[in-house]
Amino acid sequence: MNIDVVTNAAVMAARREIAALEIAMLQAQAVLRGDVRGSLDETRERLWAGIMFLKRKILPELEFEDVFGTGNFVILRSSVSFTIPASTLRVQVVAGGSGGSSSGGTPGNGGNSSFGTHLSATGGTTGAAGTGSGGTTNTSGGAPSGRFGGARGTYLGLLGAAMILALNITENRDPMVHYGFGGNGYLSAGGGYGGGYSSKIISGLPVGQSIAATIGAGGAGGVNPQYSNQVGGLGMPGIIVVEW
Fold first, then answer.
1. Taking Cα atoms as reference points, which of 219, 203, 199 lies closest to residue 62?
2. Rounded to an integer, what distance in angstroms lies between the CA atom of residue 84 and that of residue 4?
3. Sheet containing 3-5: which strands, arranged edge to edge?
4. Residue 51: what pLDDT?
């Protein structure tokens, strides 16, 4: 099971203790200057900014527009039976990218990702980008640019094509950063297509029950039938982020 629980119990407990100390200190200062309300607002803003910094530090390209709910979130990098932690969740789903080509070799398609029956995204294929469905926001991945694979879809829409030159010219992909990207092609062979994206706020969920969270794998790179050492780059696997 591959789950990155960023705000686990120990971290949250420590954060609450620090916050309590900060609030006590600022309240004491506020009494001296007669501004209790201002000190609480200031502390809240600082804590929220800290949560946003943590999210962007771990996944610098993830589509976090704000702090949702209480600021808790979990990152799923492999399929799992996920225990629902709250009745309202914000979920982002990214599918896997297809593999890059090699001369005469056929790359594999990216796998589909889904969160129960609520929302899903299809993986990039050898001829088309994946797309999202079921969410409030559903976008497609990017097309390859020559031998460089296309980027994943995002909440901003078809950002994949615009991101290729900035992020995609690399021989060795990093699944922690390039999740959902298509693989690069071998030499002059074509790159793969990016996986789709979907996001949604889901309400009325039964706390404590399980839901199937499926992560699409990246597609295999095409293998040259004459030279087996000439292999296209792997497509990057998908990811699911749950916030509450």
1. 199
2. 15
3. 3-5, 73-76, 239-243, 89-94, 197-202, 137-139
4. 58
Q: Which helix (H) or strand (E) holds 137?
A: strand 137-139
Task: Please tell me the distance from the alpha carbon of residue 208 to that of residue 202, in angstroms, as a whole number.
Answer: 15
What is each CA distance from 132 to 57, 60, 159, 164, 175, in whole angstroms? 26, 21, 14, 20, 20
91 has pLDDT over 60: yes
d(C-alpha 175, C-alpha 75), whole Å: 13
Residues pairing with 74 in the sheet: 5, 242
**Residue type for 133, please?**
S
pLDDT tens for each residue of 54-89: 555 455 445 555 678 888 888 898 999 999 999 999
Question: Which residue, 175, 180, 89, 172, is CA-closest to 142?
Answer: 180
**pTM, entire model:** 0.73
Quickly list DSSP for 22-65: HHHHHHHHHHHHT-HHHHHHHHHHHHHHHHHHHHHHHSTTS---
**Distance between CA atoms of residues 114 and 134, nearest Å:** 10
Using CA atoms of 237, 95, 120, 199 in order, give the dihedral in degrees to the nearest 10. Answer: 100
The β-bridge relationship of strands 73-76 and 3-5 is antiparallel
**Cα-based angle 94, 135, 73 (whole degrees, multiple of 5):** 60
The answer to whether 98 touches 124, Cβ cutoff 8 Å, is yes
Give 130's DSSP letter.
Answer: -
- Percent of the chain past pLDDT 90, that is, above it, reads 38
